[in-house]
Write a structure and sequence with these properties.
Distance between the termini: 81 Å
Low-confidence stretches: 64-80
Strand content: under 5%
Number of helices: 4
Oligomer: single chain
Mean pLDDT: 74
Structural class: mainly alpha
Helix content: 55-70%
Largest sheet: 2 strands, antiparallel
Order of helices and strands: HHEEHH
Strand order of the largest sheet: 1-2
């Protein structure tokens, strides 16, 4: 039985060598299989990611509500301008909460970054002194 399988494989290999002596067909088939497999794996991983985020985000919802938070902080049906109102409320709360120290620290860091005065100026000269 084993010899029959080996003879069959040898005859198929000989036929492939006659039809494609340089191996271009085999190379093309191998590359197509690899890319098709990668393509399918990408969509499998995306689907699993979609499922896991959908289950994580799906929480208990009250009947008749959309689950969005309005500007006043209540959960209910969202109006068209609620995102802008929420952003404005957050910005107002942050500006009232923090003093000017945080803004000054951020401004100083940006100034140093853009003026490139973060690092020391070096001469790039290496001096080697021998010890006798």
């Amino acid at each position: 039985m084993m010899t029959l399988v080996l003879l069959d494989v040898a005859s198929k290999a000989a036929r492939m060598a006659e039809q494609d002596p340089n191996g271009w067909i085999m190379t093309l088939v191998a590359v197509c299989v690899v890319f098709l497999t990668l393509f399918l794996l990408q969509y499998c991983y995306r689907f699993v990611g979609w499922l896991s985020t959908r289950e994580k985000n799906a929480g208990p919802k009250k009947a008749g509500t959309s689950g969005r938070v309005g500007a006043a902080g209540s959960v209910g049906a969202a109006s068209a301008g609620s995102d802008d109102e929420v952003a404005a409320a957050i910005a107002t709360a942050l500006s009232m909460e923090s003093s000017g120290e945080i803004q000054a620290a951020i401004g100083l860091a940006l100034d140093r970054w853009f003026s490139e005065s973060i690092h020391d100026k070096e001469s790039y000269i290496i001096t080697i002194k021998r010890k006798y």
